[in-house]
Amino acid sequence: MQITGVELVAVQTVREMGQRKPADAEKARSNHVVVRLHTAAGIVGLGEMSDVNWSVAPAALAALRERLEAVLVGRDICELTALQMDLGREAWAHQVLCGIDIALYDALARSLDVPLHQLFGGKVRERVPFAYPLAPCRDAADRRANLDRVERLQEAGHRALRYYFGQALDEDELFLREMRRRWGDAVELVALDASGRFAVAEAVAAVQRFAEFAPGLYESPVRGRHDAPVEDFLAVAAQSPAPIGEHITDFAVAARLQAAVDVFNTGLGYAGIAACRKVLAVAEVCGNAALMGSTVEMSIGTAARVHLAAATPDLAFPCYMAGPLVYDEDVVGEPVQYCEGHIVIPEGPGLGVELDGARMKKIQLA
What we know:
alpha/beta, about 35% helix
């Protein structure tokens, strides 16, 4: 099944959270690129470059499409590994390989008339548990805004949260203390994510200070994040009351940090499905726990991650794919669904979601 063209469409979505802080009335916005991979058989593979931080102006997308088509057009969709190897020989902006890889897998699964998870050996779970992201508090207004979010999530049956902390530790503590006072253990605090804010001594003090709130793990505790020295992670882990996690971007990072961190936060966003599966394999072989991370995707990107998570036996924590709950808009007819703290695996061939041209046009960027 020959690839005949690549179509890239830039869209912008509005998040339910504030632009600069949780209580900000001005809402945050994210740019995405929807991928349509055309084939001679008429099958179109869908992909998504999610929450991109590079130019999506028409000229930039035209140049990107030209580069991609030089590698892909005329090739057989079934040559998946060879295509991934050839794409991997060039440098691409963040999320580009992810969006193309999703579209390649989606087209292949559609051609076989099977759901995407069948390409990974089939699903081992019927639904995928998830955790909702909360931005860090910096003042009392932020605390109120985040507590309101927690209340709405609890009412919807979504009890697991991931909280970014470290901008204002006193405000973080006040928020978490009030959250525990109101809901106790009904809220599952999956992770406290420091986003690489701390020096080693600061990280040790922070993880011990927040131990009473019983996070499942601490993520990115030290400066440098996945590029930080192994010794920094080991120093924090030696004094941490909970496991230490880090964002693991590829096989090389996984190999370097497998003895230094307890939990791999990995995902498709770094280099696509195949690269993510390699990281998950390292975790399984080396005895690290794993979870499926997120860059806050729309339904196309979320569906791809859910299918892979459904077919991955060893996921120790709820996953972070909450985008269809975070964004007010989407580009598919039926967005990915959530039910009582779980993501429902989309049914149907490929990703199990279908592009809605009218919905996409409403949020398309010029």
